Amino acid sequence: APQAQPKQVTWADLDSDKDGNLSKAETATVPELSKIFDQADANKDGKLSAEEYKAFAMKQQGGDAGGAGGH
């Protein structure tokens, strides 16, 4: 039998109260997310918005794209 693929967890899956943001409790089941929560929570309101997460992910991938001496 073919192996079942691990289910890709989406933002909506984690956002249990459907407010569009993820709280620390909501990210508790995803270790990668809980680890970076405080760094990614740019405005330190205890919630992670999709925008904050995207900005954090972009920064991680591109090093400091847009910083001084960038491309």
Provide a short characterization of the protein structure.
It is globular, with a radius of gyration of 15 Å. The protein contains 4 helices and 2 strands. It has 71 residues and is mainly α.
Give a structural overview.
This protein has helices at residues 11-14, 24-27, 31-40, 50-62; strands spanning 21-23, 47-49. The chain is mostly helical and 71 residues long. The relative contact order is 0.13. It has a two-stranded antiparallel sheet. 44% of the residues lie in helices and 8% in strands.
Can you lay out the helices and strands and say which pair or pack?
Blueprint: H1 11-14, E1 21-23, H2 24-27, H3 31-40, E2 47-49, H4 50-62
Antiparallel strand pairs: 1-2
Pick out its properties.
71 residues, mainly alpha, single chain, two-stranded antiparallel sheet
- The count of strands amounts to 2
Largest beta-sheet characterization = 2 strands, antiparallel
Shape: globular
Instruction: Return the structural class.
Output: mainly alpha
Radius of gyration: 15 Å
What is the percentage of strand-forming residues? 5-15%
Poorly predicted parts: 67-71
Number of helices: 4
In round numbers, the mean pLDDT is 86
Give the N-terminus to C-terminus distance in angstroms.
Answer: 48 Å
